[in-house]
Specification:
The chain has 182 residues and is an alpha+beta fold. Helix content is 22%, strand content 41%. The protein contains four helices and nine strands, in the order αββαββββαββαβ.
Amino acid sequence: MKQLSAVVFLLTCLLTTVSQGQSIELKNISVEQHTDHWQVTPHYDIELSEAMIEAIHNGIEVTFVSEIRLIAEKNWWPDQTLLRREKRFEIHYFSLSSQYQLKQLSSEEETTFMSLDALLEQLTRQTSFSFAQQSGATAVETRFYLDQRALPSTMQLPILLDPQWSLKAPANRQTLPVMDEP
């Protein structure tokens, strides 16, 4: 019985250590009100696991998704999603030049970095969204996650339950400022 308890304790410690190797945490959501639109910028703190860093260094393209929804909150009823937008970013590593590339898929904009940390810092700054002001909109909800479906098909099944590849931030809401009446 003591051996079983020791094994369970060891596995728990190992899983805790592995799961602490990567994280995406929301720092804040900046909401700026302009005359006809809101500018929403979520800021995240991203830390990749060793398995993800190794995959990037071995030429695997990793895709992240920043998603935002404009919400009309309802009392006693499910909230209504008025608009949903997302931005997809691919991370590439070029071993000959030892450079990292961040590519925004919707605009084909590419930026090159000398370090992965600099790329991740820039990634959190490029997730700015613009929404036309709508009556009834009361909040924005943001999510940021690793798109596991964009990985090569041979990797998708093995990483399904791997804690080193379960990288996503929970949905976070921010109340919108009250619109000025014209």
